UniProtKB/TrEMBL annotation:
One Gene Ontology term of the molecular function aspect: transferase activity
EC number, as in UniProt: 2.-.-.-
Keywords carried by this UniProt record: Transferase
Pfam family, one: Acetyltransf_3
N-acetyltransferase domain boundaries: 20-185
Domain of life the protein comes from: Bacteria
Protein's recorded name: GNAT family protein
Organism phylogeny: Bacteria, Bacillati, Bacillota, Limnochordia, Limnochordales
InterPro entries, alphabetized: Acyl_CoA_acyltransferase, GNAT_dom
């Protein structure tokens, strides 16, 4: 792992894709993140169930804790209009194994209201932009993601990107966690649409 590339993810760092721009998560993003965190649909996609409402104190504590973790980075995602629409928690980076975990969090209502195709396009470009940095600049060999069965759009995007299932966790409530990995040599550009202009979900 190129540790200098990890250290380079600071307040001045950014990477631009076709539809998104990645940058470090800021404290000014927290009110929007709290709003998305308390959205019942986002909770189902990321937690598998609805939970009690989080508070401003909760989100600030979460941000402060992760900001002091040297093996973690919170990467904000902006859309083409410069709006913060979600983020990646890049964590558990292991220099010996050249691997790390990515926890995606996307809950912008304006994007979701455009339909699953719009969500898939944004997720795909955000992941492709991040993976290019992780594999090509940080030189990771493997990236891991856990995706719940309650988020089929994300699950399809991950499969399209070349991620494969390496484990499953049955939470005994109808929700399955898919543990997925992507190795550097297996990365691929996913199809935008299927024949006829439709997409599988």
């Amino acid at each position: 792992m190129n540790e200098a590339a990890l250290a380079a993810i600071d307040d001045a760092w950014s990477r631009t894709g076709r539809r998104v721009r990645l940058r470090l998560l800021r404290e000014s993003d927290l009110p929007k993140r709290l709003e998305m965190t308390n959205d019942p649909q986002v909770q189902i996609e990321t937690l598998g169930m609805t939970v009690g409402e989080r508070t401003p104190y909760d989100i600030r504590s979460w941000f402060k804790t992760l900001s002091h973790d040297p093996s973690s980075r919170q990467i904000a995602v902006e859309d083409a209009q410069g709006r913060y629409v979600g983020d990646f928690d890049l964590h558990s980076l292991d220099a010996r194994q050249d691997e790390g975990w990515v926890e995606p969090f996307f809950g912008d209502k304006e994007v979701r209201d455009q339909g699953q195709q719009a969500v898939a396009h944004l997720l795909t470009d955000a992941f492709e932009t991040l993976l290019a940095y992780l594999f090509d600049e940080m030189r990771l060999s493997r990236v891991m993601v856990e995706c719940l069965s309650t988020h089929p759009v994300l699950l399809q995007v991950l499969h399209d990107l070349g991620f494969s299932d390496v484990g499953r966790i049955d939470h005994m409530n109808g929700v399955i966690s898919h543990v997925m990995e992507l190795r550097r040599d297996a990365r691929r550009v996913p199809p935008t649409t299927l024949p006829g202009g439709s997409r599988r979900w």
